[in-house]
Amino acid sequence: MSTITSNNIANSSGITDENISFSKTWCEKQVIKGFSSICYYGTLTYTPSRCSNCGFTSETVKIIKYGTKLSRITLTKSANLPTYLFLKKQRFYCEGCHTTFTASSSLVKRNCFISKRVIQAISSEGQFISSEKDIAYRHSVSPTTVNRAIHQWSHQFKPSYGSLPAHLSMDEFKSVKSADSQMSFIFTDARKHEIMDILPTRRLHHLKDYFLNYSYEARASVKTVVVDMNAPYTSLIRDVFPKAIVIIDRFHLVQLVMRSLNQTRIKLMNRYNTSRPEDKKIYRKLKSYWKLLLKNKTELSDSDYRYQRLFKGPKSSMGIIDYIMTLDVEFKATYQVAQNLLVAVQHKNISAYQTLVLSENKLISPQMKRSLRTLKKYLPEIANSFKYNDSNGHLEGINNKIKMIKRISFGYRNFTNFRNRILLGFNNKRVAS
Question: Which residues form the Transposase IS204/IS1001/IS1096/IS1165 DDE domain (predicted)?
Answer without folding.
Answer: 168-422
